[in-house]
Amino acid sequence: MLFSSVCRSFSRDKSLKITSSAFVEMKKDNVISPYGFQKGEQSHVFCLNYVTVEDCLPLLCQLHRASTLPPADQNSMITAIVQSRQSRVKFNTSWLDDLYEKIELECQADKITPLVTNPGRVMVTTSRLYFQPYNNAETTTLIKVRLKDIQSMTKRRFLLKQIGLEIICRESLMSTSVLSCKSPAERDNLHDKIMAQKDVSVESSEQQDMTLKWQNGVISNYDYLMYLNSAADRSFYDLTQYPVMPWVIQDFTSTRLDLENPETFRDLSKPIGALSEERLARMKERYDDMPEPKFLYGAHYSTPGYVLFYLSRLAPEYVLCLQNGKFDQPDRMFNSLWELWQNCLHGAADFKELIPEFYESNGNFMVNTGVCNFGVRQDGRPVGNVELPPWAEDSNAFIRKMREALECDYVSKQIHNWIDLIFGYKQRGEEAEKADNVFYYMTYEGAVDLDSITDPNERACIEIQIMEFGQVPKQLFTTPHPVRHGARIEHPISGSHSVAAANGTVKDQSCLVEKDCDKENMSETNKVLPRKVDFSSLNEVLRFSLHKQAITDVKLCLKRKMAFSVSQDGLFKMYSLEEQRQLRSVPLTSMALSSCVVLPDSNTVIVGSWDNNVYFYSVEYGHVLDTLQAHDDAISCITWKNDMLFTASWDSSVKVWQFTVPLSQNDFSAAEFLLQLDHDYSISDVAVDDSCATMVSATKEGQIYVWDLLTYSLNNMFHAHQGKINSIQLLSDRRQIISCGEDRYLRVLDLDSGTASFVKDMKENVLSLAVCYQHVVVGLDGGQIQVWDMERAILLNTCQAHTGGVTCLHISDDHTLVSGSMDRSVCLWRPAFR
Question: pTM for the complete prediction?
Answer without folding.
Answer: 0.84
